[in-house]
Amino acid sequence: MDLTLDQHLQAWLLAQEAQQLRRSCRLVPEGFINFASNDYLGLSTHPQLRPELPVGSGASRLVSGTCAVHVELEEALAQWKGTAAALTFATGYAAALGALPALAQKGDTILLDKRAHACLIDGAKLSGATIRVYPHNDLNYLEKLLAKTTGKRWIVTESVFSMDGDFAPLTEIVALKEKYGAWLLVDEAHATGLYGSQGSGRIGEAGLTERVEVQLGTMSKALGVSGGYIAGSRTLIDYLMNRARSFIYSTAPSPAVTADCVAAVKLVSGEEGTRRRALLRKHILALNALTGLSSSSPIIPIIYGREENALAAAATLQERGFWVPAIRYPTVARGKARLRVTLTAAHSAAQIEALVAALPPHEAGRKGE
Length: 369
Ligand SMILES: *Cc1c(COP(=O)(O)O)cnc(C)c1O
Hints:
Helices cover 41% and strands 14% of the residues. The chain is α/β, with parallel strands linked by helices.
């Protein structure tokens, strides 16, 4: 494939334009009376919901119009991520379900990491493309798949994996996709806010922004609000506005929540974010030291193996006042049941010590093993 993704998408957009079918988001000018909203009872501006900005957005942005705050968030996200543009969705799940079927079609091939999140699997299935799953982070296998497939190939991976907290080898994956002329979508759900000097994620930290076609993420994790996004070129975003069904046919994210997202991006990319990232890093190192694990992320799987052992461990912790979820099949493989401990900057060092002291014996990482 000697086509860049932008060239491929631009051709489709130009064809739409030629048929007067190209869409774009229009701002509703202030003072207009909106007859395009589905806010039938007018509740979205009820003072008990939210005094400053409406909670409800009324309809899809292409129908009811875009609010200034949506554009503000997209500009803030693009600037933070270092991309030309960004597009927000109601959730990260909706971003994946919108983007993958818009981008990949029947006849294309999606090469998916074995441990990819459900939203990436579902988006890939919905696209109708041929799905080839490669073993988790297995670059040799991935290269073999790239060598023996033709047509448009999409590599789809997370940068920090949601259940194991480990990293994808992004630099190596980027080199492979360039060698074989494939395109890359990276889900930064668990990296956004945490890595790089401004917390933009692992793509930015690795200096790969210009080389990753599609960045996906959520504002429901480190940003502490809710909503999903896609970041990338202007052409990519224009294309998704016209083709991502979860964007076109779903009510726009709540303006009030979107305003909170703008505030969260500012906080996380600024000094407050730097301070909280440093504190979180200290907590991760402390937990590693106490357990003998070596996690680089705040997601720390404590493996119990058998499903009943993980459930019993979760119950024991609950009796002692700790809320830690047991994760079992099908979220993780059979026999790999675990507690999924996640650390936050809001924990204290004493709380982390107490948790480790309360952990029932587990398979991996016990101090001294
Ligand atoms: C949570 C998560 C999502 C979905 O984000 P939501 O905003 O919660 O829908 C996508 N990908 C990964 C890897 C996730 O962990």
